[in-house]
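Cross-check.
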Amino acid sequence: MAEVKAKNTGLQVDTLNLSDVVLPTISSEMTEAKYVLLQGQELNGQDKSDWTKIIQYAKDFLAYDYYLISSPMWNFTIPYQLKHYIDVIIQPGILFQFTANGVEGLAKNKKMFCITSRGSDYSVGTYLHQFDFQEPYLRAIFGMAGIVDITFLNAQPMDYTPEVAQLSMNKALEGTLSLAI
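Predicted model, tokenized:
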């Protein structure tokens, strides 16, 4: 990060470690409240308080020009903490809207970098590529929000010998630094 900040002196970096935050719960009650809001009605009490938090997370996300997601692959996709965060922020009227022509993303002209670690090699052309639900999901969900400039760097395979894992990590680190600088 020091190299990136040195080359980009005006860069402000904020970090959200999803393991350290308690995100609002997306319960059936919250889903019902969402539809009340979508119908243009007001919320009261706890529903209003909970939705205020959800809306703030979504607006905070939208405020940035660049995003970096650093995530391992879990069971062919993303960890539940990241999925929970995405469920909180991907809200109609904030990150996307429904139009006569379909869904329109509202997070346009933004760039995302996704750095992942994977136990095996899921590259195109490998047998395991068919099980990579991580990259397609992140491209689809953030693409719906309008973020289409997404670059992936995958440290893979990491569950092989220590030597192979170190080579994979070195390659990913070199790629990360070249993208950042």
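Residues 118 and 156 are 5 Å apart (CA to CA). The beta strands are 66-72, 96-99, 102-105, 111-117, 149-155. Passed to J.P. for a second look.
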